[in-house]
UniProtKB/TrEMBL annotation:
Its EC number is 3.1.1.11. It comes from Carex littledalei. This is pectinesterase. Keywords: Aspartyl esterase, Glycoprotein, Hydrolase, Signal. Residues 1-30 form the signal peptide. Residues 37-319 form the Pectinesterase catalytic domain.
Amino acid sequence: MHIHRHTFSFSSSLFLSAYVFLHSILAVGSVPVAKTITVDKSGNGNFTTIQEAINSIPDGNSQWIRVDIRQGIYIEQVIIPKEKQFILLQGQGTSTTVIQWNAHAAPGDSGINTAAFVVSSDNFIARKITFQNSYDYKSKQAVAVAAVVQGDKCSFHDCKFVSYQDTLCDYRGRHYFSQCWIEGGVDFIFGQAASVYEGCTLNSILLDKGPSWFTAHAKVNLSAPGGFVFKNCILTGSGNMYLGRAWNQYSTVLFYKTFMSGIVVPLGWDSWQHDVSQITYAEESCTGPGSNKGQREPWEKHLSAKDWNKYLGREFIDQERWIEQQAP
């Protein structure tokens, strides 16, 4: 099958302007917090569990409420329903504030119902928290989701996501991940969302040589919003990893100015036997031993500067400046 390859016309000035433009809007703004709730395992706060604090927030909430989570390992499944918007979860650091749950999905199940953390509401922020599914993957591998993000306008800053198989379900909506650590071995970022990952580290803990996959993305159709965009990230760890596999024929994943260690397989991408003509997989200005594109799949897209700007600019996830309007 002959696949048309786009003519690549790269303009460094256009890339720089797009990067500066997007970076300038991805700063957290100054919308005030209306109320603060404290969670403390030792009993010195308003609640001893995170879920109790979430449950106390009224449905239909329209003002930012900060939930300060003091240090500790909170062994509980935390679920934020769609009715409870404008919540900010504030931890004290990924090494000290941990949401942990030990569960895995039955064969054929998505794993959403057994995830350690699920946010279904719009307008959500998390900072300095670890989300971990502590299922023992070394004894038996199974889907064990650390976090499911299926609300719109959700952002995560300095957070950590830890599991092995299907770590982060970046399911649907528009999301922003800044300076996060995402760890897994198989499909550990997957979903249909439109998301920007900036300054994040993807750490493979693959048990064998593999290969396996960093990402598995899908879209409902070609014109639907969606795609994972990685900017100034780091890909590292063990095993041999594809940059992504196509969950369907509209899969969209892009890496820009990302360091790729030698664990990235030379082919780069896995079509998973889907029609590749509508898959959008692309890389630009990446570094490291895994960034050599000499043996990449011939159907990898070669985007123009204009096309790249579409993914790096505001219109991809933030036309209405929702990120800078989120609470401090």
